[in-house]
Specification:
- By secondary structure, the chain is α+β, with helices and mostly antiparallel strands.
- The chain has two domains: about 160 residues, Creatinase/prolidase N-terminal domain (Creatine Amidinohydrolase, Chain A, domain 1, 3-Layer(aba) Sandwich), CATH 3.40.350.10; about 240 residues, Creatinase/methionine aminopeptidase superfamily (Creatine Amidinohydrolase), CATH 3.90.230.10.
- About 35% of the residues lie in helices and about 15% in strands.
- The protein has 13 helices and 17 strands.
- The strands form five sheets. It has a six-stranded mixed sheet, with helices on both faces. A three-stranded antiparallel sheet has the order 7-10-11.
- A hairpin with a 4-residue loop joins strand 16 and strand 17.
- Helix 9 crosses helix 13.
- It is elongated, with a radius of gyration of 24 Å.
- The two termini are about 35 Å apart.
- The N terminus is likely disordered.
- The protein binds manganese (II) ion (MN).
- The site of manganese (II) ion (MN) has 4 residues, from loops.
Length: about 450
């Protein structure tokens, strides 16, 4: 495991006068300074073996993502993010690569990584790239690394073998012209049995392995640091984007690769809009602020929401609603065990709200779809809404619990969202270092 940087306790961070050590100090590999992260070679190899066991006999052909063109595609953002399926089997952040896995029986697995050649003149602009050489072999743990231009001849062999070689699995979805050319070359007219790889990979991704859980923990810890930073600076009269800036500063300062999703910073009336991410309103004394935001680290993203009073002190009414949401979240957490479904946990949270609403939400109870108008939670992973929502919980799944109550007439919204690792015994809070109770939030905000 490469999770070697010790976490700095948040208390120690705030106490220190000097700059805190970042939680996610940027891991790099010496051969690609600043470009790549270490690969968990054992984990990726195990995933490839697991895939080939599922396939039995056949091949899987998986393209890497391509860099967007800063002039043509996204003027404001040239950020490269690896394709999740390619990442799952390689943990490489290299672009325009292909992975070819071939199984001819249970003990015969061939893995070939195809990489474009390095071009020094281009690297003057882009920085170092992974090329088809011994560095790639060492970093990836894949012993056969070939230049990209040898992919065609390999695919022709698959095509000649046709159906005799077993099915060929490819991730079917939107493809680039080059991806279409290559899959045509491999499959058209050869009689190969082409199938979609994604359902198999998605089912493998539901239960996280130790490396994935370590990545999620790190993404969560970075996210928590950002949430606490935002709570500490909050003052009535601040603009939502000022809180957003402190929040995201906290993410990036602690080594986040990027946001897991656009940060939601909704104050007052905006606290009741579920996916509000305009973040332009000026806060007012007495507002609640809902911040639903998280960092991505090592391709995995957290998903955390906190609600706090911008002036640092909950009103009795705000506290009553908050505590009902908190109680519902705790009830769902306490019900977590292997075998239960997210839908059943949703029912547990709603039953708690129904039983404890009293007249807080008026004639109807607070679990009403008018007030708690979204689902309780979802799996997280490489996607913030990750695969496996309908699967009964198993140890190694990581899910969110995020009940909320939104009272538009009162401009009062509360959502509390934590990330939970499912274990054999129940659940483990991953994000509870972010203050969760009104007392803990007020305590953090009093140290401003
Ligand atoms: Mn969520």
């Amino acid at each position: 495991m490469f999770l070697a940087i010790p976490l700095v306790s948040l208390a120690a961070q705030s106490a220190a006068r000097t700059a805190p050590t970042p939680i996610g100090a940027y891991d790099v590999v010496p051969e690609l300074p600043g470009m790549g992260r270490p690969v968990d070679i054992a984990a990726t190899a195990a995933r490839r073996r697991a895939l080939l066991q599922r396939i039995g006999r056949g091949a899987a052909l998986i393209p890497a993502a391509h860099e967007r063109n800063i002039e043509r595609d996204y003027v404001q953002d040239n950020d490269f993010r690896q394709d999740n399926t390619f990442y799952y089997f390689t943990e490489l952040e290299t672009q325009d690569a292909w992975l070819l896995l071939t199984a001819r029986g249970p003990d015969s697995l061939e893995t070939v990584l195809f990489l474009p050649p390095r071009t020094p003149s281009q690297e003057r602009w882009t920085g170092l790239r992974l090329g088809p050489d011994s560095v790639a072999v060492r970093l990836s743990g894949i012993t056969t690394v070939l230049p990209l231009d040898s992919l065609d001849s390999r695919l022709l062999r698959i095509r000649v073998a046709g159906a005799r070689g077993g099915p060929v699995y490819v991730p079917l979805g939107p493809a680039t012209r080059e991806e279409r050319r290559i899959s045509d070359l491999a499959f058209s007219g050869g009689g190969a049995d082409v199938r979609n790889l994604l359902p198999i990979v998605d089912s493998m991704r539901v239960v996280k392995d130790a490396d994935e859980i370590a990545r999620l923990r790190r993404a969560v810890n970075i996210s928590v640091a950002g949430h606490i930073a935002a709570m500490r600076v909050a003052r009535p009269g601040m603009y939502e984007y000022e809180l957003e800036a402190t929040l995201e500063d906290g993410f990036r300062r602690n080594g986040a690769d990027r946001l897991g999703y656009p940060s939601i910073v909704g104050s007052g009336p905006n606290s009741t809009t579920l996916h509000y991410d305009v973040n332009r309103r000026r806060t007012e004394n007495g507002d609640l602020v809902v911040i639903d935001a998280a960092a991505e680290w090592g391709q995995y993203t957290a998903d955390v929401t906190r609600t706090f009073p911008v002036n640092g002190k909950f009103s009795p009414r705000q506290k009553a609603i908050y505590d009902l949401v908190l109680g519902a979240q705790q009830a769902a957490f306490d019900a977590i065990r292997p075998g239960i479904t997210m839908r059943e946990l949703d029912g547990v949270a709603r039953a708690y709200m129904r039983a404890h609403s009293g007249t807080l939400c008026g004639e109807r109870t607070c679990d009403d779809r008018e007030y708690f108008n979204h689902g309780l939670g979802h799996p997280i992973g490489m996607d913030v809404h990750d695969v496996g929502f309908t699967r009964p919980l198993e140890p190694g799944m990581v899910v969110t619990l995020e009940p909320g109550i939104y009272l538009q007439a009162e401009k009062l919204g509360v959502r509390i969202e934590d990330d939970v690792l499912v274990t054999a015994k129940g659940g483990e809070w991953l994000s509870d270092a972010a203050p969760r109770t009104t007392e803990a939030i007020e305590r953090v905000m009093s140290h401003r």
